[in-house]
Amino acid sequence: MTVPSIAEIDISGKRVFIRVDFDVPLSKDGHVLNETKILTVLPTIRYAIEQKAKVIIASSLGNGKGRVNKKLSLEPIGRVLSKMLDTEIFFPENSIGEAVRKIVTDMQPGQIMLLENLDFQRGEAANSLEFAKKLAESADIYVNEAFSVSNQVKASLSGICKFFDRVCIGFQFQKEIENLDRIRDPERPFTAILGGSNVLDKIEIMESILDNVDTILVGGVLANTFIKVLGGETGKSDVETAAFYSAKKLISSAEIRNIRLILPEDVVAISGNLNNYSSSFIISGGRIPKDLKIVDIGPLAQADFAKRLAKARTVLWTGPMGICENSEFKKGTEALARALAETDTFNVIIGQDTVEFALDSKGKEGRGFMSHGGQTALDYIRGNKLPALTAMGNRIQ
């Protein structure tokens, strides 16, 4: 059964519990370094405020391991959120208990409370029903706006649903599902771009889309591994030997289905390491001398990949083409981001590094969706059930 969005439920004047993912990086002095996760949930929070709901926001941060750690307090995030919304935010010293109940009672419609880090309580990670019940007792309606962690089993994501008659998803969660569904059932031709490392995980993604994909473009350590499996020379480049069997199996499966598995025609390579190299070289893929290391795709590969993207109607992209920690070796990723932005292709981009390149790319906006779901988005595409979504679905059956 489809879980309704917050707009499909009457929340006017109700006590609304919104589970978000505010697991953002903090500086040593407690300043938020990246506000993206906060910005993406603002539409849902603002909607609840407009509906005159009493808004209770909950999240975890870092790994509290069931005990209080002031360095992982949500207070700095509360200050940022308060500034963004231009409103006061109540902040109790805990996520449950008498102080929370009193604030909820005293709150006026349209006011907000941000609970302290859920992971300070052992019951959160344990999916404790006792803890979940205490979280739920101060609210009438449950809203999951934490798609990026909905592949986890936690009290505030799964167990808590048992204690609400009405559950729903936020606007960003809804966008994630709607756009990822268009990858699971794509308009053809469908092209996938996969790069980066975590080769075994990327091969699993490739396997999950074999019945629908037409072309797979491969870069990064993932490409190095395939080049090696096919008998090419990769020099000192990073490869994942543990993935060789899976890579061979994937190549065979793609051939049987007439899927084009495209490796880089040429690559950028260096002698030495990233911290100590004199120059870079452009070399044909699969012919890398023993003393060189692949760090990016080359100009021929960039042009080839861009040409293939222009012919697609649907594109999935996850993972960079090169070692983007070095500005010299992110040109391949930047080139693909620009090429994709210049098409009318519907595309979904997953992964923080890849999304950042897409955001920075020049050209028209296109029809892209930049997922902030990370591993959860990849799990969903693979067809894995998301425990939090299952918990909500069970509640509304």
Descriptive account of the structure:
- This protein has 397 residues and is an alpha/beta fold.
- The protein folds into 2 domains: 6-169, Rossmann fold (3-Layer(aba) Sandwich); 177-381, Phosphoglycerate kinase, N-terminal domain (Rossmann fold, 3-Layer(aba) Sandwich), CATH 3.40.50.
- Helix content is 36%, strand content 18%.
- The protein has helices spanning 36-50, 75-85, 98-106, 122-125, 129-136, 171-184, 199-208, 220-229, 244-256, 299-310, 331-341, 352-360, 375-381, 387-396; strands spanning 15-20, 54-58, 89-90, 112-114, 141-145, 166-169, 190-194, 215-218, 233-234, 260-262, 266-271, 280-284, 287-288, 292-297, 314-318, 346-350, 367-371.
- The strands form 4 sheets. The protein has a 6-stranded parallel sheet with strand order 3-4-2-1-5-6, with helices on both faces. It has a 6-stranded parallel sheet with strand order 10-8-7-15-16-17, sandwiched between helices. The protein has a 3-stranded antiparallel sheet with strand order 12-11-14.
- Strand 1, helix 1 and strand 2 form a beta-alpha-beta unit.
- Helix 7 (199-208) packs parallel to helix 9, helix 10 (299-310) runs parallel beside helix 11 (331-341) and helix 11 (331-341) packs across helix 12.
- The radius of gyration is 23 Å and the shape is elongated.
- The mean pLDDT is 94.
